[in-house]
Amino acid sequence: MDRGKIRKLECKARWVRKKVLEMAVKAGAGHVAPAFSCTEIITALHYDNIMNFDPKNPEWPDRDRFILSKGQAAIALYAVLADLGFFPVDELMTFTCDGSRLGGHTEDTIPGVEAFTGSLGHGLSIGAGLALAAKMDDKKYISFVLMGDGECHEGSVWEAAMFSAQHKLNNLIVIIDHNGLSATDCLENYLEVEPLNKKWEAFGWETVIVDGHSFNDLCSVLSKDSCSRFSKPLVIIALTTKGKGVSFMENSPIWHYRIPVGEELVIAQKELSCEK
Amino acid sequence: MMQWVQGMRDSFFTSLFSIAKDDKRVILITSDTGAICHDRFRDELKDQYINVGIAEQNMIGVAAGLAMAGKIVYVYAIIPFATMRCYEQIRVDLCCMNLPVTVVGVGVGFDYSTLGPTHHGIEDISLMRSLPEMKIYSPADSFMAEELAKLSYEEKGPKYIRLDRVGSPLVYKNKKEIDFSKGFNVVREGKDLYIIATGRMVFNALNVAELLADLSIDTGVIDLFKIKPFNKNMLWDVIKDVGHVVTLEEHFIIGGIGELVGGLLLNRRKPVEFRAIGIPHAFCRSYGTRDYLYRINGIDKHSMVETINKWIKTEKKFL
């Protein structure tokens, strides 16, 4: 992949992380580490011409659909949507403040947001319904669903996985933000999800494992051609680091819903500015 | 003479089939719950019929996705599975997003009288009443069920319709008798007492009213078929002068129409004597016919006449 293009995407991801931190600190709320885990995934989808959308016409019927099933990463998606022009960037600083429409989980009433999420295990079924509707109506749009790996604990995920394979929804792409942590602990310590790829394969899905922080990996696998290559739905297992970009947050369960303060904040800001 | 026709479920889906034939946006999803009336959907409208398997959570999510893409979706299962198993999906995917999906539950109350508590539909009104945006319809007979298919097709937002599975006695002589504008119908006028009933209990209430008339209690019957939103002001206008009001439901009183009407009466200055009759708050672990379960739970017509008569006669001052 073109090195200049990758650098631009990396620069955008750095901006998203810094904006997320700024929003969270101002609000005293927000899931920073979960957002940092999937920053490259959301950035790649929205800035590399992978998805078709029009910020001036969010309801454009032929747009590709993006369902943020791990709705706690709303803070990162909101930063991206504002930057793309779906709503003013200034509004980001109202995040979770009194009277703001930007809350801690994604709401479908926000321009550019497809589905109301925040409760885990819902997004895949919704994405499957959208993909099925596209097939019924002979539409070309793709449904992208971003899920967490802990979310795969939900039984509803597997109901939807079976359904999607049964209906050969090759216009459905799931990306699993596989950082190995949930809200309280490492998954392996209390409910292991591995071998994740084999589980999805057994459910009739095409599977690909990528580095979830590498734009080179993400952009090559997230192209529209990915869909046409397969007759099955595709799951991309993106290996990620929770809290990516801030050393003391990385792989540390306590940062699931903590906001850095004092010296922590100084270090976090410094590390995000220096990110290569 | 009691007139019986095809069941509510058959009437509803026959009507829906006619609509779906002319509108490809109409999709019927079932979670492997069968009905002969679904066969035509499966055979003649196969692109509009989906069996998602025994997976109600996914059924609601898929319905939401389809509705977001412009489809008008109906999901169908036995009441506990259509409402409870996927309750949070209904709350978030349908109600939070206010999507045009109709949840059709079959097996009101003790309809599945031989299958035990897992299949009894006795908490569904309570659950659905809690949800913002959700509308609730509880038809009294097949004519109404047939008309509700049309109404639900035209109305926006999420709806819940509870249906009987098999043949039910008719309350209405024809469709023209049903006035959908108020959300309830006065099916029998009364001067001493009104029984407000829903679903199959409307027919029971008419029988009770006949028997109470023999005891000199002039009893009216109201079919409350639209439970949410509830037209409390117009209903109050009907019942405010009778002195006694009874609600009757094949459902727990908790969260049911008993509490609904009770809440209405609490907020009025004029006192009205009130009694809620429904299924006692316990799982019914007995088996038999639906009528047998009515009898042992005190919601058969003779138990109700006895209950109401005893209650009224101790409150003679109101008569």
How many distinct helices of chain B? 12
Uncertain runs of chain B: none
Q: What is Rg of chain B?
A: 19 Å
Determine the oligomeric state from the structure: heterodimer
Based on helices, strands and strand pairing, what is the structural class of chain A? alpha/beta
Distance between the termini of chain A: 17 Å
Outline of chain A, from the CA principal axes?
globular
CATH topology of the largest domain in chain B: Rossmann fold
| Number of individual domains of chain A | 1
Largest sheet of chain A: 5 strands, parallel
The level of helicity of chain B is 25-40%
Helices and strands in order:
The complex is a heterodimer of chains A (276) and B (319).
Chain A lengths: L2 H25 L4 H6 L1 H9 L17 E4 L5 H11 L38 H14 L6 E6 L6 H12 L5 E7 L8 H4 L5 H7 L3 E6 L3 H7 L3 H5 L4 E6 L22 H12 L3
Parallel strand pairs in A: 1-2, 2-3, 3-5, 4-5
Helix pairs in contact in A: 1-3, 1-4, 1-11, 3-4, 5-6
Chain B lengths: L7 H15 L3 E5 L8 H6 L4 E3 L4 H13 L3 E7 H5 L3 H10 L4 E6 L17 H6 L5 E3 L4 H13 L4 E5 L20 E5 L4 E5 L3 H14 L4 E6 L1 E3 L3 H8 L4 E9 L4 H10 L6 E7 L10 H7 L4 H13 L6
Parallel strand pairs in B: 1-2, 1-3, 3-4, 4-6, 5-6, 8-9, 8-11, 11-12
Antiparallel strand pairs in B: 5-10, 7-9
Helix pairs in contact in B: 1-7, 3-5, 8-12
Can you tell me about this structure?
The complex is a heterodimer of chains A (276) and B (319). Chain A has helices at residues 3-27, 32-37, 39-47, 74-84, 123-136, 155-166, 187-190, 196-202, 215-221, 225-229, 262-273; strands at 65-68, 143-148, 172-178, 206-211, 234-239. With 276 residues, chain A is of the alpha/beta class. Chain A has a single domain (3-273), classed as Thiamin diphosphate (ThDP)-binding fold, Pyr/PP domains (Rossmann fold), CATH 3.40.50. In chain A, helix 6 links the parallel strand 2 and strand 3 (172-178). The longest helix of chain A has 25 residues, at 3-27. Chain A is globular and about 50 Å long. Chain A starts with a helix and ends with a helix. Chain B is an alpha/beta fold. Chain B has 12 helices and 12 strands. In chain B, strands 2-1-3-4-6-5-10 form a 7-stranded mixed sheet, sandwiched between helices. Chain B is globular and about 60 Å long. The A-B interface holds A 61, 108, 114-119, 121-122, 124-134, 136-137, 143, 155-156, 159-160, 162-163 and B 47, 50, 52-53, 55, 57-58, 60-71, 88-89, 92-93, 96-97.
